[in-house]
Amino acid sequence: METPEQTVMERLEHGSAPPPDAEVPAAHTFEVKNVSIWYGEKLAIDNVTLDVAANAVTAIIGPSGCGKSTFLRALNRMHELTPKTRMEGTVLLNGEDLYSSTVDPAIVRRRVGMVFQKSNPFPTMTIGENVVIGLRLNGVRNQRFLNERLEKSLRMAALWDEVKDDLHKPGTSLSGGQQQRLCIARALAVEPEVILMDEPCSALDPIATAKIEELIYQLKARYTIVTVTHNMQQAGRVSDYTAFFYLGRLIEYGPTTKIFTNPGEKQTEDYITGRFG
Amino acid sequence: MRFERAHNHTWRKIKSALAVGIAFGSALLVITPLGLVFFYLLINGAGSVNWDFFTKLPAPVGALGGGMANAIVGTLELLALAGVIGIPVGVLGGVYLAEYGSARLNSVLRFLADVLNGIPSITWGVVVYGLIVLRFKGCSAYAGGLALALIMIPLILRTTEEVILLVPNGYREAALALGVSRWKTIVHIVMKTASKGIITGILLALARVGGETAPLLFTAFGNRFWNHSLSQPIAALPLQVFTYAISPYDDWHRQAWAGALVLVTGVFCVNILVRILTRGRGASVV
Amino acid sequence: MVVPKHILGTFDDALTSLRKDLLMMAGLAERSLDRAIKGLLQRDDDLCTHAIADDEEIDQLEKQIDKDGFEILLRYQPVASDLRRVISAIKLSPNIERVGDQATNIAKRARKLNRHPPLPEVQMIVPIQAHAMSMFKDSINAFARENVELAHSVCSRDKQLDDMNRDANRKLTELMMEDREQLRGYFNLILISRALERVGDHATNIAEDAVYAAAAEDIRHKSLAASV
């Protein structure tokens, strides 16, 4: 039996069904338990516990200095690059402790890729070299394998058609939006399980932003994505779950639709409606 | 209404013009000696710069002709020696300062390097004389090369450190986030990005020590003939110029002018090379 | 309810003006309904004409609220309570406009009744009018004060109004059969009663939107949803 809805959809020749309600997450990629992070004496993250849903986009929002970037970086141990950091709590990636003493941070980062606010293709390298540099420096020498991965990564980053004839040109010759997608391709090339994005569109114009957002939506099928954003509308558009941070604490975490129509906490409401300050 | 104080404006314009004029005059004062020196060298030395100068050994006193072939080759040998010792130490030290070490240790090292940069070059000659020449009982190309290397090290160290610090942190983070190890990131990403700056620093240091005379006086010592072993004294262009210039012979004076001209031209060429290198493609940030 | 203020002052201004227009519209609808009924009970054609004239302004305000609501959505992309308030305002205004229409309807029928000798049965309308009016006023109050309880009470009172309307219908139909002379008059009273019953329905809709605006809870078609 066809439901009336299906009949109408078929009549409109529109194949895809509406996305299911993101109420109950199927699986968790990250399980963050009681994480606190200090920079020197300053407490940047205050006892945060949160599970990141697999194959979904989780947006982290909050005012500047609320610890959202620090939290993101704690998910692939990038925060350790800042001197004098101290951390407590556990972060499990698919059940494995990221901070176990036997774990090499480099391996963590191979499994948890990252894209930054400012697109940063390596200036001394061509577009092609930029994509495969992660593999090359991790010891992959097989040129055929590298070429395959190069094309695959660029295709996934929706950049292949635009650059396939210019792979030998410098990575910095691309436009800002293309550079950011190149950086996403570079992160994808090492086949991570998760992609972290730290305000990936904040330096881009609306069209380039829309392309990245569409890309995020496409990548969700294969990767778990955690993105930090200042742009609330963007969080609303791309994410399934939203976490609101304020003063280092996780104030509220839940399905994006819920957060943006009926937040449970007054601080969240004040922030997203622009009543802060 | 707001524009009525026109006389004020005129006075401001005069002050501005005055300031620009003084600055321009100062700039001219800086450039003038360079022009004068080069011009004077050309007048006095150009006549003696010929094929023989580059191919012949120095002629004995009174004999016509002769050249400085041994000194030119000697200077190149000394620079090669100095480079072999000084470049790796200087570059790696600079990398350490920029990428590793604690803030306190680094500021001490940086201060020491700046002090070393300010030490008169003859001091290095004395140091090497005491350490090497006395111990091995004789001046040698090695001793000369070492003296020049010691001058180069703090120079290269500081320039390397500075250009490496200029590499935006985003590139380091991008590489580390790909799971690349720290030292591979530094070698393949950071140093590659800063390579033009590092090479520039090396070339400028070579140009600087290539013209040094004092540290060579009692290390390389000088040699009227071809040097056949690096453990023997060796000729160098600035040394030869010095020896000839203080001699009482007109022939030698002319040769000294020619030597100085070649030296200055060499340094000039290195600087132009540096300019070309640093201009280059826009790809590199530093 | 626009406290604390937004960082963006113009956003506050736009929300305030939207709210003011909505309350103005509700006030006009109330007055129009009141005048129409008074015109009927006091046999005053002037009041009826005023009631009909008010509707013109109500219609204009409905258009204004739509326009301002869309503009707020477009310019400020409101979220959370702001979004709910704007959406409710846009959904509320047609209901208020329909209440205005019902007032016009009543006023027109009152003028027709006023041309004939008075009917004592007009008094049957009084309790229905009182009930419908209180529902409408309370629904607007519930929205304006974001009072969820009051809104719920409005919804639960609709059943009673329906019953009152049915009773009046039955009695008037009987009278129509007994007294053929007054058939037209009774018929108009039936339609006036029905118009008041419709006002109750609109008040219920407004109250439901008020609950959504205040508590982000959709209470419409509850029984239906529960049975699915």
Give a written overview of the molecule:
The complex is a heterotrimer of chains A (277), B (286) and C (228). With 277 residues, chain A is an alpha/beta fold. Helices cover 36% and strands 24% of the residues of chain A. Chain A is built from eleven helices and ten strands. In chain A, the strands form two sheets. Chain A has a six-stranded mixed beta sheet, with helices on both faces. In chain A, strands 2-1-4-5 form a four-stranded antiparallel beta sheet, covered by helices on one side. In chain A, helix 7 runs parallel beside helix 8. The longest helix of chain A has 14 residues, at 143-156. Chain A is globular. With 286 residues, chain B is mainly α. Chain B has a single domain (69-279), classed as Orthogonal Bundle (MetI-like fold), CATH 1.10.3720. Chain B has eleven helices and no strands. Chain B has helices spanning 6-45, 51-55, 69-99, 103-118, 121-136, 141-166, 169-177, 182-193, 195-210, 237-245, 250-279. Chain B is flat and about 80 Å long. The N and C termini of chain B lie far apart (50 Å). With 228 residues, chain C is mainly α. Chain C has a single domain (9-227), classed as Up-down Bundle (Methane Monooxygenase Hydroxylase, Chain G, domain 1). Chain C is built from seven helices and no strands. Chain C has helices at residues 9-41, 45-76, 80-114, 125-145, 148-178, 183-215, 222-227. The two termini of chain C are 36 Å apart. Residues 224-228 of chain C have low confidence and may be disordered. The chains are: A alpha/beta (277), B mainly alpha (286), C mainly alpha (228).
Mean pLDDT over all positions of chain B: 87
> Could you give a short account of the major beta sheet of chain B?
none
Oligomer: heterotrimer
Q: How many individual β-strands of chain B?
A: 0
Q: In CATH terms, what is the fold-level topology of chain B?
A: MetI-like fold
Number of helices of chain B: 11
Give a short summary of the structure.
The complex is a heterotrimer of chains A (277), B (286) and C (228). Chain A has 11 helices and 10 strands.
Indicate the topology.
The complex is a heterotrimer of chains A (277), B (286) and C (228).
Chain A: H1 4-11, E1 28-39, E2 42-53, E3 57-61, H2 68-74, E4 85-93, E5 96-97, H3 105-111, E6 112-115, H4 127-137, H5 143-156, H6 160-163, H7 176-189, E7 194-198, H8 206-219, E8 224-228, H9 232-238, E9 241-246, E10 249-255, H10 256-261, H11 266-272
Parallel strand pairs in A: 3-8, 3-9, 6-7, 7-8
Antiparallel strand pairs in A: 1-2, 1-4, 4-5, 9-10
Chain B: H1 6-45, H2 51-55, H3 69-99, H4 103-118, H5 121-136, H6 141-166, H7 169-177, H8 182-193, H9 195-210, H10 237-245, H11 250-279
Chain C: H1 9-41, H2 45-76, H3 80-114, H4 125-145, H5 148-178, H6 183-215, H7 222-227
Helix pairs in contact in C: 1-2, 1-3, 1-4, 2-3, 3-6, 4-5, 4-6, 5-6
